[in-house]
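Worked example (supplementary).
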Amino acid sequence: MRVDLCTGSISSEPTIKYAKEWLGARGISQRILYNEIKPWVTPYEPANKIVISAGPFTGTLAPGATRLCLASKIVFSYGVGTANMCGFFAPELKFAGYDHIVIQGRARQPVYLSIDDDRVKLIDARGIWGKTTWETDDLVKEEVGDEDIQIICIGPAGENLVRGACVIGNRNRAAAKCGLGAIMGSKNLKAVAVRGTGSVEVAQPDRFMEAVDRNLESIKESPRLKPLFEYGTIGIFPYENEGGGMTYKNYQDGYMPEESIKHLDPDIFVSKYKQRNIGYMACPMACSRYYKVDHGPYAGLATEGFETNTMVDFGGKLAIDYAPAIIKAHSLCNQLGLDEDNTSAAISWAFECYQRGILTPKDTDGLRLEWSDYGVAFELIRKLAYREGFGNLLAEGPKYGSEILGRDSGYYAMALKGQGIYEETRLPIGWGLGVSVATRGGGHTTGAPICELFVEGDPKLTESAEKVFGVKTFSRVEYQDKARLVIYTERIQELINSSGICMFFGTWEGPDLIGFGEIAELYSAATGWETTEEELVRIADRIFNVEKAFNVLHADLGRKDDYPPQRCLREPIKSGPFKGHALSKEKYDSMLDEYYQLHGWNKDTGLQTRTCLEKLDLGDVADDLEKANKLVRI
Amino acid sequence: MINIIYTEKCVGCRSCEIACSYHHQKIFSRKKSSIEVGRLEGEGKFWVVVHRKAENGRIACVGCKFCLKYCPGVARDELEAILDGRKTS
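After joint prediction of all chains, the assembly is encoded as:
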């Protein structure tokens, strides 16, 4: 479906013209953006587009095939960005008969897009502009008269063009990264609501379900997934600390002290606050939780829960060791429509600047930015969402905020390609590389392997991991093999994101889970097009190279943008089991050289080569890069 | 008369809905299914209705329990009790 908010025109075209070459969701949206947005278009202009996509397996029983992908040219880097959310919007879109919505232009006044099977229209949203995402969800459902309609929307942060504004679905699911909420805000698009009464069919149903059942069996048997079944991803939190990945007090350390972290033990959330488990379509795990607080300053707060990064963002980065405050931080960000990683990166940058005397109460509207003070942190979240006072600076995120502030505060801005991050990049080594080279600007879900945390020391897992990942070194402190491991991860995540299934069921989480072969079988059965593993890997490489070329052509991103934040290259982890671990610039450089070479790119600049692109049938991309003098002619 | 059953363990994933339509018609469809899951997301509550008659395009539940196979383990006993008529409110 294509929607032009300037003219109000709505049309549709078949997905099939993209499907064979670009798979779906992330892949198709990247090609559309590359083809249709000129490099001189800025992210908030009407000419920018946002693509909202379901995948080829969405709406079926393929495990966790309920992910929604959003993509656009983004304000952090002026390159391309994608974000992905769980929820019911994506399957409902398929039941309405659509795979993708490509939205361009800007409405003259706030609107929301209403899709009721083939009845699609733009509706006046002036009455809900300014409302939180929870209020918006209630008001649209009330207006439509259907509690069951599926809605994605933005909050005040998106309306106010806060760089880290996100898109929220089902009240608490977020397409968080890349500021896509602000892109919707720039288009005066408050929400998209969809109701679908149709069905999804696959070409070979018996074969498809046999593949689904095999995958479900491997999910059930996977030892790696057992903690996720029990706790959700917050079960990882203590292990992140033990592994040196806590980013404590804005990355001043990689470890949170024992006396603080014990107050955020996953068992506390389960025993004191959990009401029930929550899952979304076709998910055998149901890793989400519904929490209720019945005491203290946030008594009465009830909300769906969060992932481990919320714990690190507010528990680690801001040193908040009060469990109800973590639940409150999550609900506040969701209601205002804010990415928690970027928001906490901006606020922890400000806290550290305050600690060092770079900021004083004169700068911060009289607030004293003391570590652990969640009351102050929540006031800053509110100010940031409404661009009020000091919040107007924070709304630009840590990197751009530090550029405005000056005072040598940039060193404390923990950002990649302009976007605030949550991930430790000093450890594990492959994880740090994957986060640093990610095309969208940080994040661990596109190329950062997680297997360095669990393979080493487990002979059985090591054997299967060597076979699946094609490498032999899994130690988290080693550099060898990590470039190759990152490229494996980029490929599988590209395919997982493009097919619409959840990454927790892919080989990212364990070598016994869904890999290239399993996706090829599902895809062949779903479409009736026999597709091999090799063909899928080639599609993954095509998508990745188009993302890379977009970033080069639109934002002049290059080798300089593929390094961890300066602090992580200069300061070691100061305490905990990995005390003293420091990243070696020399070894990181060699690893980056190898990473570029394995991609077939130029080792010194990271720029793509004609040979690499033509092998992938991307001669048109090579021509574009050559015209911009950004191609290596070999 | 539709009997809405409020649940304690159901995770609200609606996998049972599309398992039902697949088993009987080889398509994935919420609206054809003989089982219907409602989500009151603001309250963290989920309800289930079992359509025992073929009305409004829905398949009549024949008690085959195919849907149970795709229900997450934590909620399966409760769904089985609902299908058996042992849990009715």
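Two points are worth noting when inspecting this output. The radius of gyration of chain B is 12 Å. The interface with chain A takes residues 8-9, 11-15, 18-19, 21-22, 26-32, 38-44, 70, 72-75 of chain B (CB under 8 Å).
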